[in-house]
């Protein structure tokens, strides 16, 4: 099984995971052939990518930080919470706690949980899936940094609700494919304060969680917003969530752009360390990232092309790759390379197969 962009479907593949609509109804069941007329309809519905079975993906099981069951349940819960809050300006703090606890229950007791790029299959699910993704990344990092369980829960609630204030931003601005006007950007910049104001009356939400919502766009060098805080003026938990937020956003598909390759996002985080981001937290974050996802097509420095079939968990830049094409571009009998054992071979790019 592997995930591909819908525009790369050739019509010879089979569905590897059921394709669901926004209400959870099955559009295409597992095992169904992907006919071209299905693809046209799915594109019209805003499907970005999907999981397929084909000649390259035999025996491959893409990994994720969170199980599909918990992810879908949490996404639907946060969707309902946000929609309800938009209407009433009240927030269901008990349900927020339930969402965070079910995610924590899955992540905290697993060994060596790694950070994966976002798994957003529909454009219109971005807001909800992004909230879950940032929450997941924050929990993984809170655990890695040795935070206590209560502190991780505060961190996770703040991460889950970090973009709550965007309920006040018009959809046409949030999804605008062109550059924002100055006035539109000012409206976007109000979302930390707006989210904080919604949460402020609720004593069940901790001060730290509220601080994360208010401060997740602050930058180490003081050029962020809303308060222009610098360095240690920004709480470590806030600095951590800001990294998780940017990583989750950049590695996800949006209406106006495709996701950015994970290794390019890593380069960006490193380049902005000490300016936008806390350098020590960026370093810790990178140690836990899956750079080349399982099922991803890759090009090696030898000129050979293949697909990542498995991660080496303690050296994620050097996974196990199944080779299908030689350096001349000729298709060959597949064989696998464990890149931790072939130290002169390395990946130079991600490619579509």
What do the pLDDT scores average to? 91
Number of domains as seen in the coordinates: 3
Distance between the termini: 13 Å
Rounded to the nearest angstrom, the radius of gyration is: 21 Å
What general form does the structure show?
globular
Strand content: 5-15%
Beta-strand segment tally: 10
The major sheet is characterized as: 5 strands, antiparallel
CATH fold topology of the largest domain: Hypothetical protein af1432
SSE sequence, one letter per element: EEEEHEHHHHHHHHHHHEEEEE
CATH H-level superfamily of the largest domain: Hypothetical protein af1432
> Which class best fits the helix and strand makeup?
alpha+beta
Which CATH class of the largest domain applies here?
Mainly Alpha
Number of continuous helical runs? 12
**What is the topology, as strand order, of the major beta sheet?**
9-8-7-6-10
Spans of at least 5 consecutive residues whose pLDDT stays below 50 are none
Percent helix range: 25-40%
**CATH A-level architecture of the largest domain:** Orthogonal Bundle
Structural overview:
The protein is α+β, with helices and mostly antiparallel strands and 353 residues long. It has three domains: 52 residues, Molybdopterin biosynthesis moea protein, domain 2 (Alpha-Beta Complex), CATH 3.90.105.10; 219 residues, Hypothetical protein af1432; 55 residues, no CATH class. Helix content is 39%, strand content 13%. It is built from twelve helices and ten strands. It has a five-stranded antiparallel β-sheet, with no helix packed on it. Strands 1-5-2 form a three-stranded antiparallel β-sheet, with no helix packed on it. Strands 3-4 form a two-stranded antiparallel ribbon. Strand 6 and strand 7 form a beta hairpin. Helix 4 runs antiparallel to helix 5, helix 5 packs across helix 9 and helix 8 runs antiparallel to helix 9. The model has no long low-confidence stretch (mean pLDDT 91).
